Amino acid sequence: MNKKISQTILATIRFMVNYLPFTVAVFGWKLKVLLKYILKYRSKVISQNLQNSLQNRYTDKEILEFKNEFYDIMVRYITENLRVAAWPKEKLIARLSLRNKDYWSSYFKAQKSTIIMASHYGNWELNLMMFHHLAGHRAVGFYKPISNKVVDHMMLDIRSKHGLELYPIEQTARVMSRHKSENIIYFFIGDQSPLNMNGVYWNTFLNQQTPWLNGSEKLAVKYNYPVVYIHQIPCGAKETIWYNIELEVISQNPGNEAEGAITEKYSRLLEAQIWNQPPYWLWSHKRWKRAHLKENGKSK
Protein backbone atom coordinates (compact mmCIF):
# COMPACT_ATOMS: atom_id res chain seq x y z
CA MET A 1 0.00 0.00 0.00
CA ASN A 2 2.77 2.46 0.96
CA LYS A 3 4.58 1.77 -2.29
CA LYS A 4 1.40 2.29 -4.35
CA ILE A 5 0.78 5.63 -2.63
CA SER A 6 4.33 6.80 -3.28
CA GLN A 7 4.08 5.72 -6.93
CA THR A 8 0.84 7.66 -7.32
CA ILE A 9 2.42 10.79 -5.85
CA LEU A 10 5.46 10.44 -8.13
CA ALA A 11 3.23 9.94 -11.17
CA THR A 12 1.38 13.15 -10.29
CA ILE A 13 4.64 15.08 -9.89
CA ARG A 14 5.94 13.79 -13.23
CA PHE A 15 2.72 14.78 -15.00
CA MET A 16 2.79 18.30 -13.51
CA VAL A 17 6.48 18.90 -14.25
CA ASN A 18 6.41 17.49 -17.80
CA TYR A 19 3.01 18.66 -19.01
CA LEU A 20 2.11 21.58 -16.74
CA PRO A 21 5.52 23.16 -16.05
CA PHE A 22 4.03 26.50 -15.00
CA THR A 23 2.60 24.76 -11.94
CA VAL A 24 6.13 24.23 -10.61
CA ALA A 25 6.81 27.98 -10.70
CA VAL A 26 3.48 28.70 -9.02
CA PHE A 27 4.14 26.02 -6.42
CA GLY A 28 7.60 27.46 -5.71
CA TRP A 29 6.25 30.99 -5.24
CA LYS A 30 3.49 29.83 -2.89
CA LEU A 31 5.89 27.61 -0.98
CA LYS A 32 8.27 30.51 -0.43
CA VAL A 33 5.46 32.68 0.92
CA LEU A 34 4.34 29.84 3.19
CA LEU A 35 7.79 29.02 4.57
CA LYS A 36 9.19 32.53 4.79
CA TYR A 37 6.25 34.70 5.80
CA ILE A 38 3.49 32.49 7.22
CA LEU A 39 5.15 29.56 8.94
CA LYS A 40 8.49 31.37 9.37
CA TYR A 41 10.05 27.94 9.03
CA ARG A 42 12.84 27.47 11.58
CA SER A 43 13.41 31.20 11.57
CA LYS A 44 15.10 31.29 14.98
CA VAL A 45 17.39 28.36 14.15
CA ILE A 46 18.43 29.91 10.84
CA SER A 47 19.07 33.32 12.42
CA GLN A 48 21.09 31.88 15.28
CA ASN A 49 23.19 29.67 12.99
CA LEU A 50 23.94 32.53 10.64
CA GLN A 51 24.73 34.99 13.41
CA ASN A 52 27.03 32.61 15.31
CA SER A 53 28.81 31.49 12.13
CA LEU A 54 29.21 34.76 10.26
CA GLN A 55 29.27 37.59 12.82
CA ASN A 56 33.01 38.22 12.50
CA ARG A 57 32.90 38.34 8.69
CA TYR A 58 29.63 39.99 7.72
CA THR A 59 27.48 42.84 9.04
CA ASP A 60 24.09 42.28 10.67
CA LYS A 61 22.46 43.69 7.55
CA GLU A 62 24.31 41.25 5.31
CA ILE A 63 23.42 38.34 7.59
CA LEU A 64 19.73 39.29 7.39
CA GLU A 65 20.04 39.39 3.59
CA PHE A 66 21.58 35.90 3.66
CA LYS A 67 18.62 34.66 5.71
CA ASN A 68 16.12 36.06 3.22
CA GLU A 69 18.10 34.60 0.34
CA PHE A 70 18.31 31.22 2.07
CA TYR A 71 14.52 30.78 1.89
CA ASP A 72 14.66 31.47 -1.86
CA ILE A 73 17.46 28.94 -2.28
CA MET A 74 15.66 26.32 -0.20
CA VAL A 75 12.67 26.62 -2.52
CA ARG A 76 15.05 26.43 -5.49
CA TYR A 77 16.37 23.08 -4.21
CA ILE A 78 12.83 21.76 -3.71
CA THR A 79 11.64 22.74 -7.19
CA GLU A 80 14.85 21.35 -8.72
CA ASN A 81 14.14 18.07 -6.97
CA LEU A 82 10.63 18.00 -8.42
CA ARG A 83 12.28 18.09 -11.83
CA VAL A 84 14.73 15.41 -10.71
CA ALA A 85 11.73 13.18 -10.00
CA ALA A 86 10.27 13.81 -13.45
CA TRP A 87 13.03 14.43 -15.97
CA PRO A 88 15.05 11.80 -17.88
CA LYS A 89 18.73 11.49 -17.01
CA GLU A 90 19.91 13.19 -20.23
CA LYS A 91 18.06 16.36 -19.34
CA LEU A 92 19.43 16.37 -15.80
CA ILE A 93 23.01 15.65 -16.86
CA ALA A 94 22.81 18.69 -19.16
CA ARG A 95 22.25 20.88 -16.07
CA LEU A 96 25.58 19.84 -14.51
CA SER A 97 29.20 20.44 -15.42
CA LEU A 98 32.21 18.52 -14.07
CA ARG A 99 35.48 20.41 -14.34
CA ASN A 100 38.39 18.37 -15.79
CA LYS A 101 35.98 15.54 -16.54
CA ASP A 102 38.44 13.38 -18.49
CA TYR A 103 41.10 13.67 -15.79
CA TRP A 104 38.73 12.61 -13.01
CA SER A 105 37.26 9.77 -15.03
CA SER A 106 40.77 8.37 -15.44
CA TYR A 107 41.57 9.08 -11.79
CA PHE A 108 38.65 7.00 -10.49
CA LYS A 109 39.51 4.11 -12.78
CA ALA A 110 43.07 4.06 -11.45
CA GLN A 111 42.05 3.66 -7.78
CA LYS A 112 40.98 0.62 -5.80
CA SER A 113 37.92 2.64 -4.82
CA THR A 114 37.37 6.28 -3.86
CA ILE A 115 35.52 8.03 -1.06
CA ILE A 116 33.90 11.34 -1.98
CA MET A 117 33.01 13.58 0.94
CA ALA A 118 30.05 15.85 0.20
CA SER A 119 28.04 18.34 2.22
CA HIS A 120 24.63 19.97 2.50
CA TYR A 121 25.81 22.76 0.23
CA GLY A 122 24.17 23.17 -3.15
CA ASN A 123 21.65 20.57 -4.28
CA TRP A 124 23.38 17.46 -2.95
CA GLU A 125 20.44 15.25 -3.96
CA LEU A 126 20.79 16.13 -7.64
CA ASN A 127 24.57 16.35 -7.79
CA LEU A 128 25.32 13.06 -6.04
CA MET A 129 22.54 11.20 -7.84
CA MET A 130 23.88 12.16 -11.28
CA PHE A 131 27.61 12.27 -10.55
CA HIS A 132 28.36 8.73 -11.70
CA HIS A 133 27.05 9.65 -15.17
CA LEU A 134 29.40 12.64 -15.32
CA ALA A 135 32.39 10.59 -14.15
CA GLY A 136 31.47 7.43 -16.06
CA HIS A 137 31.95 5.32 -12.95
CA ARG A 138 29.93 3.13 -10.60
CA ALA A 139 28.79 4.92 -7.41
CA VAL A 140 27.26 3.92 -4.08
CA GLY A 141 25.53 6.12 -1.53
CA PHE A 142 24.16 5.53 1.95
CA TYR A 143 20.93 6.95 3.30
CA LYS A 144 19.06 7.17 6.56
CA PRO A 145 15.63 5.49 6.16
CA ILE A 146 12.69 7.83 6.80
CA SER A 147 10.14 6.74 9.40
CA ASN A 148 7.23 7.66 7.12
CA LYS A 149 7.17 4.68 4.76
CA VAL A 150 5.39 6.50 1.94
CA VAL A 151 8.03 9.25 1.90
CA ASP A 152 10.80 6.66 2.32
CA HIS A 153 9.62 4.68 -0.74
CA MET A 154 9.26 7.87 -2.76
CA MET A 155 12.71 9.25 -1.89
CA LEU A 156 14.40 5.90 -2.52
CA ASP A 157 12.71 5.70 -5.92
CA ILE A 158 13.86 9.21 -6.86
CA ARG A 159 17.42 8.78 -5.60
CA SER A 160 18.02 5.43 -7.28
CA LYS A 161 16.09 5.91 -10.54
CA HIS A 162 19.18 6.91 -12.55
CA GLY A 163 21.53 4.19 -11.35
CA LEU A 164 22.99 5.38 -8.04
CA GLU A 165 23.23 2.32 -5.78
CA LEU A 166 21.79 2.98 -2.33
CA TYR A 167 22.00 1.16 1.00
CA PRO A 168 20.75 2.02 4.50
CA ILE A 169 23.46 3.81 6.44
CA GLU A 170 23.68 1.07 9.06
CA GLN A 171 24.92 -1.29 6.32
CA THR A 172 27.87 0.93 5.37
CA ALA A 173 30.69 -1.18 6.84
CA ARG A 174 29.13 -4.42 5.60
CA VAL A 175 28.67 -3.12 2.04
CA MET A 176 32.22 -1.76 1.79
CA SER A 177 33.65 -5.02 3.13
CA ARG A 178 31.63 -7.07 0.64
CA HIS A 179 32.77 -4.94 -2.32
CA LYS A 180 36.37 -4.31 -1.24
CA SER A 181 37.75 -6.01 -4.35
CA GLU A 182 35.68 -3.79 -6.68
CA ASN A 183 36.28 -0.25 -7.92
CA ILE A 184 33.50 2.01 -6.61
CA ILE A 185 32.92 5.65 -5.71
CA TYR A 186 31.43 5.89 -2.21
CA PHE A 187 29.56 9.04 -1.17
CA PHE A 188 29.52 10.35 2.40
CA ILE A 189 27.93 13.54 3.71
CA GLY A 190 29.81 14.68 6.79
CA ASP A 191 28.24 17.93 8.01
CA GLN A 192 25.61 16.43 10.27
CA SER A 193 24.97 16.54 14.01
CA PRO A 194 26.10 13.08 15.17
CA LEU A 195 23.56 10.94 16.98
CA ASN A 196 26.32 8.81 18.49
CA MET A 197 28.86 11.09 20.17
CA ASN A 198 31.36 8.35 21.00
CA GLY A 199 34.71 9.05 19.39
CA VAL A 200 33.60 12.03 17.29
CA TYR A 201 36.20 14.49 16.02
CA TRP A 202 36.04 17.98 17.57
CA ASN A 203 37.24 21.27 16.13
CA THR A 204 36.25 24.91 15.80
CA PHE A 205 34.10 25.25 12.69
CA LEU A 206 32.31 28.47 11.73
CA ASN A 207 33.40 29.98 15.07
CA GLN A 208 31.81 27.17 17.11
CA GLN A 209 32.95 23.98 18.82
CA THR A 210 31.69 21.29 16.45
CA PRO A 211 31.51 17.46 16.67
CA TRP A 212 32.05 15.58 13.40
CA LEU A 213 31.11 12.11 12.30
CA ASN A 214 34.37 10.46 11.28
CA GLY A 215 33.21 7.08 10.00
CA SER A 216 34.23 7.97 6.46
CA GLU A 217 37.76 8.78 7.64
CA LYS A 218 38.03 5.51 9.54
CA LEU A 219 36.87 3.52 6.51
CA ALA A 220 39.26 5.42 4.24
CA VAL A 221 42.13 4.53 6.56
CA LYS A 222 41.00 0.90 6.88
CA TYR A 223 40.95 0.31 3.11
CA ASN A 224 43.42 3.08 2.17
CA TYR A 225 40.95 4.55 -0.32
CA PRO A 226 41.75 8.10 -1.47
CA VAL A 227 39.39 10.78 -0.19
CA VAL A 228 38.09 13.54 -2.47
CA TYR A 229 36.02 16.63 -1.65
CA ILE A 230 33.21 17.62 -4.01
CA HIS A 231 32.65 21.35 -4.48
CA GLN A 232 29.04 21.91 -5.53
CA ILE A 233 29.05 25.42 -6.99
CA PRO A 234 25.59 26.86 -7.74
CA CYS A 235 25.06 28.89 -10.89
CA GLY A 236 22.45 31.57 -11.39
CA ALA A 237 18.87 30.33 -11.15
CA LYS A 238 18.23 31.24 -14.81
CA GLU A 239 21.43 29.68 -16.18
CA THR A 240 21.33 26.55 -18.36
CA ILE A 241 23.91 24.91 -16.09
CA TRP A 242 22.59 24.67 -12.53
CA TYR A 243 25.81 23.48 -10.81
CA ASN A 244 29.49 23.43 -11.61
CA ILE A 245 31.19 20.53 -9.87
CA GLU A 246 34.85 20.64 -8.93
CA LEU A 247 36.82 17.94 -7.13
CA GLU A 248 39.78 18.26 -4.79
CA VAL A 249 41.85 15.48 -3.25
CA ILE A 250 41.81 15.57 0.55
CA SER A 251 44.13 12.60 0.95
CA GLN A 252 45.65 10.23 -1.59
CA ASN A 253 47.02 7.87 1.08
CA PRO A 254 44.76 7.97 4.17
CA GLY A 255 46.81 5.29 5.91
CA ASN A 256 49.64 7.82 6.21
CA GLU A 257 47.49 10.57 7.74
CA ALA A 258 47.40 11.52 11.41
CA GLU A 259 44.15 10.70 13.22
CA GLY A 260 41.55 13.36 12.48
CA ALA A 261 43.53 14.95 9.64
CA ILE A 262 41.08 13.95 6.89
CA THR A 263 38.05 15.20 8.80
CA GLU A 264 39.91 18.42 9.61
CA LYS A 265 40.77 19.04 5.94
CA TYR A 266 37.18 18.30 4.93
CA SER A 267 35.81 20.78 7.47
CA ARG A 268 38.16 23.53 6.27
CA LEU A 269 37.19 23.08 2.63
CA LEU A 270 33.51 23.23 3.55
CA GLU A 271 34.03 26.21 5.86
CA ALA A 272 35.79 28.18 3.11
CA GLN A 273 32.98 27.42 0.67
CA ILE A 274 30.32 28.53 3.17
CA TRP A 275 32.12 31.76 4.06
CA ASN A 276 32.48 32.57 0.36
CA GLN A 277 28.76 32.13 -0.45
CA PRO A 278 26.82 31.59 2.80
CA PRO A 279 23.19 31.24 1.62
CA TYR A 280 23.70 27.93 -0.19
CA TRP A 281 24.39 25.86 2.94
CA LEU A 282 21.50 24.18 4.78
CA TRP A 283 21.19 26.59 7.72
CA SER A 284 17.87 25.21 8.97
CA HIS A 285 19.45 22.20 10.73
CA LYS A 286 20.29 22.29 14.45
CA ARG A 287 23.92 21.41 13.75
CA TRP A 288 25.34 22.44 17.11
CA LYS A 289 22.66 21.02 19.40
CA ARG A 290 25.14 18.54 20.93
CA ALA A 291 28.18 20.81 21.05
CA HIS A 292 27.59 21.48 24.77
CA LEU A 293 28.45 17.85 25.52
CA LYS A 294 32.16 18.55 25.13
CA GLU A 295 32.01 21.32 27.70
CA ASN A 296 30.17 18.99 30.07
CA GLY A 297 32.80 16.28 29.61
CA LYS A 298 30.37 13.80 28.06
CA SER A 299 32.32 13.23 24.87
CA LYS A 300 35.88 12.35 24.13
Strands of the widest sheet, in order across it, are: 1-9-8-2-5-3-4
What helical percentage do the residues reach? 40-55%
Classify the secondary structure makeup into a structural class.
alpha/beta
**Overall strand count:** 9
Overall tally of domains? 1
Tally of separate helices: 12
The radius of gyration over CA amounts to 19 Å
Q: Kindly report how far apart the N and C termini lie.
A: 45 Å
What is the H-and-E element order?
HHHHHEHEHEHEHEEEHEEHH
Largest sheet properties: 7 strands, mixed
Low-pLDDT sequence parts: none
The residue-averaged pLDDT reads: 93
**Anisotropy-based shape:** globular
Fraction of residues in β-strands: 15-25%
Describe it:
With 300 residues, the chain is of the alpha/beta class. It has one domain (2-295). It is built from 12 helices and 9 strands. The strands form 2 sheets. Strands 1-9-8-2-5-3-4 form a 7-stranded mixed sheet, with helices on both faces. The chain has a two-stranded antiparallel ribbon with strand order 6-7. The chain is globular, with a radius of gyration of 19 Å. It starts with a helix and ends in a 5-residue tail after the last helix. The model has no long low-confidence stretch (mean pLDDT 93).
